[in-house]
Each structure stands twice: as C-alpha cells, then as structure tokens.
Amino acid sequence: MNNDIEKILYTQEQVSNRISELATTISTKYQDEFPVVVPVMTGAMIFASELMQKLDFKLNIDYVDVSSYEDNSQSSGRVRLLRDLSHDVNGRSVLIVEDIIDSGHTLQFLNNLFASRGAKSIETCSLLDKPARREVDVDADYVGFKVPNEFIVGYGLDYDGRYRNMPYVGVLKRSVYEN
C-alpha cells in the first residue's frame, strides 16, 4: 500500500496537531451552543472521530452518506443522498465535517439541504481543501490544510475503497489510478 504513494504531504503527527488546533478554535465558537456535528461518510470518519474527541462542548453526532462519484476518480457533479440524518436540524446549529473539499458540489448540496430544513447556522470543518478543483462557490469555515491539485489519499480519503486506513495524507501515484 505504501509503495503506491508518490509522496507524503502530512504525517500522522502533523495531522493530529492540526486537528487539535481546529478543535480548540471550534470549541471556543460553540461553547454555549448544542450543535449537530455531521460527518460526511465514509471519507470523514477517521478525521471526524479524532476531531470530535477533542471538542469541548455539548453536541449531537449524526452523519450523512453521499455520493458524487460515478467512477473512482472524478466527481460527476451530481450528488446523491445515500443516508440521511436521524436528527432534526430545525433551529439548530450544524457543523459539517468533511475529509476534503474538492469540486464543492457535496458541500453545496448539504448546505442547501440543511438550510431548507431550517438549520439556525451551517458551518463546515474540512481536513483538506483543494481550491484548484472548485466548480461551485463554497468554502469551509475551518480548514486543516490546503492541498495541491493531486490525487490525495490516506486519513480517510480513498481511491476505489483503498488507502483510507493510512495514518498520513499522501499523493497517490498516477500509475495506480490511470490504469
């Protein structure tokens, strides 16, 4: 698995340190609220788990599962909701937790969905941001790292269901996904 990685962008220690910084900032913001924290599965599960353990405020945890990929490497631009929330977000603050913001279609879809359901506020925390690939005008409120326009895997991000369990963020070799 590690042989498929061109280079490591962020080590496990760097990622963990940045998550601690994000958690401190977010905890200050939500100290007097009771938000619904919504990881976007499956990619955000590792990041969200570590982040939520470090958040110091009362919260509900729920999750959504969405898909915008028709093949294994390119977003289709069409987002499908595969698993919806079990919590009512009407009048509640929502914090979406994402692994990466790429084209922006998923985040735009979720922002519109939660706004239509009456969320009091909607913010996003993303481990990674790839602005070079943005197709719609969305930004995260809290970002771990900006990444280059490369195929990124590890720490929850995958290619064809593989590499999520790598404890770092790396660039996948082109030869792996262009075959």
TrEMBL record:
Q: In which pathway does it act?
A: Purine metabolism; IMP biosynthesis via salvage pathway; IMP from hypoxanthine: step 1/1; Purine metabolism; GMP biosynthesis via salvage pathway; GMP from guanine: step 1/1
Zinc recorded as keyword: no
| Subcellular location as annotated | Cytoplasm
GO cellular component, as recorded: cytosol
Q: Which reaction is catalysed here? A: IMP + diphosphate = hypoxanthine + 5-phospho-alpha-D-ribose 1-diphosphate; GMP + diphosphate = guanine + 5-phospho-alpha-D-ribose 1-diphosphate
Q: Which gene encodes it?
A: hpt
Q: Where is the Phosphoribosyltransferase domain?
A: 10-159
NCBIfam families named in the record: HGPRTase
Per UniProt, which keywords does this protein have? Cytoplasm, Glycosyltransferase, Magnesium, Metal-binding, Nucleotide-binding, Purine salvage, Transferase
Q: Does the keyword Metal-binding apply?
A: yes
Q: Which organism is it from?
A: Limosilactobacillus rudii
| Family designation | Belongs to the purine/pyrimidine phosphoribosyltransferase family.
Q: What is the lineage of its organism?
A: Bacteria, Bacillati, Bacillota, Bacilli, Lactobacillales
The Gene Ontology biological process annotation of the record reads: GMP salvage; guanine salvage; hypoxanthine metabolic process; IMP salvage; purine ribonucleoside salvage
Q: Name one GO molecular function term.
A: hypoxanthine phosphoribosyltransferase activity
What the entry lists under InterPro entries is as follows: HGPRT, Hxn_phspho_trans, PRTase-like, PRTase_dom
Cofactor requirements of the protein: Mg(2+)
Return the EC number: 2.4.2.8
Q: What is this protein called?
A: Hypoxanthine phosphoribosyltransferase
Q: What does this protein do?
A: Purine salvage pathway enzyme that catalyzes the transfer of the ribosyl-5-phosphate group from 5-phospho-alpha-D-ribose 1-diphosphate (PRPP) to the N9 position of the 6-oxopurines hypoxanthine and guanine to form the corresponding ribonucleotides IMP (inosine 5'-monophosphate) and GMP (guanosine 5'-monophosphate), with the release of PPi.
